[in-house]
Amino acid sequence: MLLDKSKLQEYFYGNIASVFWSFFLISGALVFVFYYVHIDYMPDFDMTSSVSLLAAVSATSIFLLLSMVVMGIMPGLFWDYYWGGIKGDLDLSERWTGLEAGATVKSLFFWFALPVLIVFGSAIGSLFFGLYSLILLPLTSAIYFVCILKKYNCRYLVGFKKLISLFFAIFVSSIFAFLPFYFIMKALSLKSEDVDKILYLTGLLSLFVVFMNILVAAPLRTSSVSPNIIDAKKFKKNFAIGFLVLVMISLGSNSAYLIPEAVMRLYKFGNIDASRVVFDKDGCLILAEVGVVSNDEYDMCYISNILILSRLGKEYYLEIPAGSILKSNVSLENKSTLNANGDKSEIYSSVIRVTILSNHILSWSSVIDVK
Description:
Largest sheet: 5 strands, antiparallel
Strand order of the largest sheet: 4-3-2-1-5
Low-confidence stretches: 326-348
Structural class: alpha+beta
Number of helices: 11
Strand content: 5-15%
Distance between the termini: 62 Å
């Protein structure tokens, strides 16, 4: 063998602090690498010289990753631990425990997934189709609870207590379900303005999330095994499911680079929506040569609605919408961008990416909504 496993383990345990710190910094470097591969640009920046910067990015990205993993499976986690901690007359978990895998999934779909989908569907309906769609919530809930009442006679206090306990579990699980559902809709709305497409993909991804949470809520079928082993297996299962949910949501909503983009925006390293960027005289001349601003002599100039892709290193990497240039009363010197009729409307959807030295930028500003 090229590598001695025992020596590797000995080195790892003997240098666990340095190994952990190295992996910690590497995770921060990967955030930068993924982001800059995404924007097709690499700045002249020495990441190894800024250990504190890498450490901050690493901590933030790991926190966001773990938060999003937990967010995707929070409804199932709550359902599992809630009923696991209830004993006696209020316990309903016998309805989905001790069954075969297929029967467990069917039972949890009725007791757990279906009411969560009813609440979520009614809320989404109120957003897109008006408040009158909320009528669906009491109507479908009444039908659902009628089915429950057939199994438990409400003339007895025991049945009523179980019903209240079930209602509480459904209500809290539905609140937790809004976290991944809202994240899905937000990610889709950033990538598309087609309402029908957003609703369709939101429905598909939401069904996937619900099914994954059924698997999280499903108890492990283990016998004569210590609780510590059960907890370890449950942790591995839930983490794997949560990571799968995050991957599918990211791919389904075309947001695979969401964490790198969020970290860069948080620390203002890049991915900044600037309402206005002000350039000095030399910067204006450079931009005029590129064909971004007019050739008029000014001590300073500005362009509105710019996306600052990167401001690390010696250069700024800017993405300027062509429509923003045209609306700012500046001319595009490259006449080939016009169509045969000289109509500029075709290039409003295009963007221009340009680099400029940082010392040519005097200021940039962004608008923050304060509510």
